[in-house]
Amino acid sequence: MSRGHGARQTWLFQWVVTMRLFKPLVQALNRNRLVLRVKLVRDVVRRNYFRSRASAEGAAFADTLKQTGSKQFCFVVAFNTPWVIDAMTKAWSMYSTNMTLVVIDNSSNAAARDAIGRICASRGIKYFALHKNPERHPSRSHGVALNWIFHRLICRLEPELFGFLDHDCIPVAPLDIPSQVGDKIGYGVKRDASSNYLFTAGPTESRWYFWPGFCFLKFSAVRGLDLDFTPRMEWGMDTGGGNWPLLYSHLKMDDIAIAYETLVTVQAEGIEGNHQLVDGKLFHVLGAADKKSTVNIDGYGKRLSTYIWNKHLGGVEGRIVNDF
C-alpha cells in the first residue's frame, strides 16, 4: 500500500469518526426552536424571492397556454434527467387523454436543459425553462418551482383542472385523469404527516397532504388561496405539506379521490430494481434524479429505459435520448 493511499484511508476514518461524534450535536441544534425559526425565515425569503421573478415571462407563457384552448393542464417539473422526460412525454401521447401536458424545466444542468427542451420541441409539448433555483435541497427546490407554476401560470390560466406529475411517472396504461377526479375536489397520492421527520413538533395523526408527484385539483376549490407547495418539516410533511393549513385541513375524505402506490420489482437485463405503480397506470421510477440511487449505478438507468420502451412504448426506435 502506498503512503498516499494509507494517508487517505486514515483521513477517511477520522472524518467518519468525527461525523459520528458530531451527529447528535447537529441533530440537537436542528431541533432547537430558535434554529428552526431562523431556517423557516430563510425558507420564506427564498421562496418569495423565487416566486417574484420572471413574472413577465410567466405571463407570456401562460397566454400561450391559453391559446391551446385547453381547460385542463398537467405540469411536470423536469430535473436533470432527460431520459425520463423522453419516456414520459412519449407515454403521455400514447396513453393520456383530456389533459394538456406542460413541462417546466427546473434542471440545474445546462446540457440536461438543452436535451429536455429538444425532446419537448420534437414531441410538440409546451416547455418553459425556469430561472435559476436558489434551493439546493431537492424537496425545497421542487416546492418553490411548484409555487412559481401555481402563482405565475395556473392563477393566470384559471383552468377547470390542474395538477402536477413527477417527471419520472410514466403512463403505461390508458389514463383519463379528469374522469378519475369526477365530482371530487382533488385526486392524488395521499401522504400522512410523519413523526420521523427531524423537525416534527406536536401531534401528526390528522395531518395529510397530496404528494405533488401525483396531485390534481379543481381550480374552483383553490381560487384565491395563497397555496404553498414547499415542505413543512416541522409539521412532519415533505413537498406539498405547506398546503395543509391552507387547503387540506379543510377537506373531508369524501372530497378527494385517492390514488394508491404499489411496489413492483423490475429485472432489466439482469439487474433488479424496485419501483412503483400509481393506481396501476403509471410506472414511477424511484430515484431517477438521485445520483446515488440504483437507477444511476452500473448502467441500470439505460437498461431500465430499454425495458420501459420495449414493454410499454413500442420499442426503442422511438427513443430520442440515448445518452445516460
Structure commentary:
This protein has 324 residues and is α/β, with parallel strands linked by helices. The chain has eight helices and eleven strands. The strands form two sheets. It has a seven-stranded mixed beta sheet with strand order 3-2-1-4-7-6-8, sandwiched between helices. Strands 5-11-10-9 form a four-stranded antiparallel beta sheet. Strand 2 (100-105), helix 5 (110-123) and strand 3 form a beta-alpha-beta unit. Helix 2 (33-52) crosses helix 6, helix 4 (82-95) packs parallel to helix 5 (110-123) and helix 4 (82-95) packs parallel to helix 8. The radius of gyration is 21 Å and the shape is globular. 38% of the residues are buried. The mean pLDDT is 86.
Summary of the model, kept short:
The chain is α/β, with parallel strands linked by helices and 324 residues long. The chain is built from 8 helices and 11 strands.
Outline the fold blueprint.
Blueprint: H1 3-31, H2 33-52, H3 55-66, E1 72-78, H4 82-95, E2 100-105, H5 110-123, E3 126-129, H6 138-157, E4 161-166, E5 169-171, H7 177-181, E6 186-192, E7 208-218, E8 256-259, E9 261-268, E10 271-278, E11 282-284, H8 300-312
Parallel strand pairs: 1-2, 1-4, 2-3, 6-8
Antiparallel strand pairs: 4-7, 5-11, 6-7, 9-10, 10-11
Helix pairs in contact: 2-6, 3-6, 4-5, 4-8
